[in-house]
Write a structure and sequence with these properties.
This protein is of the alpha/beta class. It is built from 11 helices and 12 strands. The strands form 3 sheets. A 5-stranded parallel sheet has the order 8-9-10-11-12. Strands 2-3-4-5 form a 4-stranded antiparallel sheet, with no helix packed on it. The longest helix has 16 residues. This is Amidohydrolase family superfamily.
């Protein structure tokens, strides 16, 4: 079965920054935040202080994964230009999203560069208080801040542009599923993707149902199910708590608005990439044809739009790719 890992991170060099301070690489896939928190970010054998495109392709090939969507976040530090170069080098395997800090003075200049000069047609907004912008800026509503409004007005000129959002879990001020519904209504020409199934908890499915019901009327909202094993704290394949979460999402949104991803490399330090890539096939949540949508067709439709791929690949590259 064809597969797209719709949430994968490449790391040219670890340069993370969030509420814990700066990330300091230690080798062996390990790092320490300025506040003293140690973390193992990269599985053994994948890279010491990086996870490069060639390493990612090796992992993908070993697990029969055809393509990947390259996303950004504060955990590793924004890897925008390396993502751009990797998409240029391997256009049949990768599509990418860029990230930016909307609260710096030159934010809209950075957006224009990535969209107009580098050809990105997707953005990853890591606004979570736990690991993203909300940890070192005062959290704001996506649908009510004028600096973000300027961004949304700008990308509205690019129909089919993808806005991928990680807003953290419900304990964080950055948690705002209702803002996604409002933005989808205001910008029907854009596609909105919420990461990690809105951080589910199988002990509180009513909470997840409330979120999904808010999104139900808007076909331009989808969700991916990467890292829900980490969120649920599951290590036992095929992840029974995650099965409850995904079954509920299917019942409300349907299989055409859910797609698979892993959030590797970090998630593959908790569960093997193989288990993350095959767990859905070990359940009866989806039929065979529905699995084809969840594993491949939905991400292909949303991220790999022909005009988006052409924009990413055909842009002039001012730097050498070797």
């Amino acid at each position: 079965m064809k597969k797209i890992d719709a949430h994968l991170h490449l790391v040219r060099s670890l340069s993370g920054f969030n509420g814990k301070g700066r990330l300091n690489p230690l080798g062996g896939g390990r790092a320490v935040w300025d506040n003293g928190t140690f973390v193992k970010l990269i599985p053994d054998g994948w890279g010491d202080d990086d996870f490069l495109a060639e390493s990612a392709l090796k992992v993908m090939d070993e697990n029969s994964v055809d393509k990947a969507v390259l996303l950004q976040g504060s955990l590793y530090g924004f890897q925008n230009y390396y993502t751009y170069r990797s998409v240029k080098r391997y256009p049949d395997r990768f599509i990418g999203a860029f990230s930016f800090d909307p609260f710096v003075g030159e934010s809209i200049t950075a957006v224009r560069r990535h969209v107009e000069d580098l050809g990105f047609r997707a953005v990853k907004m890591e606004i979570s208080q736990g690991g993203g912008l909300g940890g070192y800026h005062i959290p704001v509503r996506l649908d009510m801040d004028s600096r973000l409004g300027r961004f949304f007005h700008y990308v509205a000129d690019y129909p089919g542009f993808v806005v991928t959002v990680d807003y953290g879990d419900c304990s964080q001020l950055s948690y705002q599923p209702e803002a996604i519904a409002n933005l989808a209504r205001l910008y029907p020409q854009l596609d909105f993707v919420v990461c990690h199934l809105s951080f589910p908890n199988a002990d509180h499915l009513d909470r997840l149902e409330n979120v999904l019901r808010q999104w139900e009327p808007y076909p331009n909202i989808s969700t991916e199910i990467s890292a829900i094993q980490d969120i649920e704290g599951e290590r036992d394949f095929p992840f029974p708590r995650c099965q409850k979460d995904v079954a509920l999402a299917k019942r409300i949104l349907g299989p055409e608005r859910i797609f698979w991803g892993t959030d590797s490399p970090w998630s593959s330090t908790f569960n093997s990439y193989h288990d993350l890539a095959t767990w859905l096939e070990a359940t009866d949540i989806f039929t065979e044809s529905e699995l084809e949508d969840v594993f491949y067709n939905n991400a292909e439709r949303i991220y790999f739009k022909p005009r988006n791929v052409a924009a990413a690949v055909d842009t002039e590259d001012p730097a050498r790719l070797d």
